[in-house]
Amino acid sequence: YAMFLSLIFLIVLVAAVVGFVFRHEIKTNFESNLNLALRNYNVTTDRHSEAVDTIQRTLHCCGVQNYSDWERTEYFTQRGIPRSCCKSQDDCPEEDLKDLSKAKPKVFVDGCFFLVTSTMESKMSVVAGISFGIACFQLIGIILSCCLSQYITNNQYEMV
């Protein structure tokens, strides 16, 4: 049991160190994947398109850097900016979404990349605190299981 807990503890520790060391690469990779999701955005039930819509609706953002990122997509030439960028679904006609100047007052202008990364960074202290607490419990479990193992080993000889 102590070895199993030690293995889990080491895996979590390595994952935390790797995440901290490669955080800039993770950001760059996220940005490129978000750009790719925008380029391949469509109205069918595509997981990436649903993720883009969810991010835009939840964080009140539009595009990667700003709402004009949609202008470089194929979806924009056909249908304009997606409705998930609209501040109000009632006041967001499709003809306004096809023109960036008309769409600007009706859509969120901030980009999603900055909002996602800043949200994640602001929650890192909570994640680190919870992880530290779990690690402490794991270490206590490792120590107690080693003590129990030692106790069992010492008392076996007395029982015979």
TrEMBL record:
Leader peptide range in chain numbering: 1-19
InterPro entries: Tetraspanin/Peripherin, Tetraspanin_EC2_sf, TSN6/7_LEL
Main localisation: membrane
A GO CC term assigned to this protein in UniProt: plasma membrane
Keywords recorded for this protein, A-Z: Glycoprotein, Membrane, Signal, Transmembrane, Transmembrane helix
Listed transmembrane segments: 126-152
Topological type in the membrane: Multi-pass membrane protein
Protein's cellular compartments: Membrane
Known role: May be involved in cell proliferation and cell motility.
Protein name listed in UniProt: Tetraspanin-7
